Amino acid sequence: MDYLKVFLMGFIFSFVGSIPPGTLNLTVLQLSLEKKIGIAFRFALAVSIIEYPYAWIGVHFQYLISSSPVVVENFQLIAAIVMTALGIYNLWPTRTPTGFAKKFNESGFRRGIVLSILNPMAIPYWMGFTAYLKAQGWIDLATPGLLHSYVLGTSIGAMALLTLLVFFAQRLAPYVQGSRWIKIIPGMLMLGLGMYAFWKYLAQ
């Protein structure tokens, strides 16, 4: 049951974190709109593969940071600050995709690998989310099996979101590209989690 719980936590927060428009999901969307479905799937697969090691690195960085006595004593407060900062970051005006991201060719998998490696925001993202989830007591990554279940969930969550973009590109394009709400909802969710953590910290 613990394995399923940490898997679902990784899946849900990876899915939500992949929603705000950025280089990777807009590339999948554009490939799908151009009817390059096979290339879009290979690109999405590459992105989800890179999500795995980046999430693993983020978790291990979080381990290193949380081993400090000062961090341990103020873990709930730090988790609240990090989650609030992630929320503000997601509400910041959307960065436009780089010129490199707009150069489409027939190698979706290789391009997905390269763009994912050059877009390492997943590392601080998973550092922050893992710290938050552990501070709330929602996950326990005490064994290698639990850790890899969690990280696998992050990889499959990213793949699930990108797969939805491939299948529903025509319907989703106006919302992903032009809707203000699709950009701010994930950020508002993170801010809400941050406020919840602050409330728990102050209630101690």
Descriptive account of the structure:
With 204 residues, the chain is an all-alpha fold. It has one domain (2-202). 78% of the residues lie in helices and 0% in strands. The chain contains ten helices and no strands. It has helices at residues 2-17, 23-33, 37-66, 69-73, 75-91, 108-117, 122-135, 144-167, 169-178, 180-202. Helix 2 (23-33) runs antiparallel to helix 9 (169-178) and helix 3 packs across helix 7. The longest helix has 30 residues, at 37-66. The protein is globular and about 55 Å long. Residues 97-102 have low confidence and may be disordered.
Would you kindly provide a brief summary of this structure?
By secondary structure, the chain is an all-alpha fold. It has ten helices and no strands. It is globular.
Rg: 17 Å
Can you summarize the main beta sheet? none
Number of domains: 1
Given helix and strand content, the structural type is mainly alpha
Residue share in helix: over 70%
How many β-strand runs?
0
Shape: globular
Give the N-to-C terminal Cα separation. 29 Å
What portion of residues belong to β-strands?
under 5%
H-E string: HHHHHHHHHH
Give the low-pLDDT segments: 97-102
Oligomer: single chain
**Overall mean confidence score, pLDDT:** 78
Number of helices: 10
